[in-house]
Amino acid sequence: MSKRLHIATVGIHANERIDYVVTKKGADKIALVYSEKNAEDAESIRIMFVERGLKAVSVKVEPWDYHCILARILEIAVDHLNYEIEYNVSCGTRVMTAAAHQAALLTDSKVYFILGDYDEQLDKIVDVQPISVTVLTEPKRNILARIDALKGQVSSQKELGSRTRLKVSSVSKHLRELEDSGYITRERCGRATSVRLTGLGRVILKLKQYKKGKACVGDTLD
Predict the structure, then answer these.
(1) Do both 93 and 164 map to the same domain?
(2) Which of 141, 75, 128, 80 is nearest to 101 (CA)?
(3) What confidence tens digit (pLDDT) does each residue in 33-87 have?
(4) Confidence of residue 145 (pLDDT cuts 50, 70, 90)
(5) SS3 of 195, please?
(6) Which of 81, 181, 193, 208 is at 20 to 30 A from 215, Cα to Cα?
């Protein structure tokens, strides 16, 4: 049976919900995602779990930077791919919980949250398995892989097209969609447009490569 990692977003209020879910559902390791405003609370929670004999780490984020939060959460997931990963979105800013839920979509993981107001008794844990509706297609994955192989940046979209064997018009469309997802950034440099892989794009690529590797192993075994 695989080990379980519980990733929880920490808020200003009702952080007892994190302990409640861990106690009810269990976990082998806890990762707390917190902001500057609740650093002390996050450290207290971390120490509480460590004193119980559980492994616990904490990761600081900017509470309203969605892409940054998503990237940091996915970095935690990538570092624990041998764990069964679960998310607790009962606390934290709306942006933090939205990013954690998106991370669950991308890692095919369960999400826990508690129903009711802050002052209600904690007795309604809900768990859901998000259904991913966005797929990183093979052309997009190849584009990200090529940028990553070129130290995370290419000097022009034209260069990227020649290296991926895609038409310039097709590359432009894929890049626009990748930029909208926060996986790359583009910057105009004279007549050319340079393309850079973001931290989020890098961890997304690692996740997709890992999943593809597991699928290939499964196909071989079958």
Answers:
(1) no
(2) 128
(3) 999 999 999 999 999 999 999 999 999 999 999 999 999 999 999 999 999 999 9
(4) very high
(5) strand
(6) 181
Same domain, 30 and 108: yes
CA–CA distance, 46 with 141 (Å, rounded to integer): 36
Give the chain's end-to-end CA distance (angstroms, integer). Answer: 21
Instruction: Please give the tally of structural domains in the chain.
Output: 2
DSSP state of 63: T
At residue 91, what is the residue type? C
- Residues 128 and 101: beta-carbon distance below 8 Å: no
The two structure tokens encoding residue 136: 């990183």
Alpha helices in the chain (DSSP H): 16-25, 39-51, 66-78, 94-107, 138-149, 157-164, 168-180, 199-221
162-201 residue pLDDT tens: 767 777 778 889 999 999 888 999 998 888 889 999 999 9
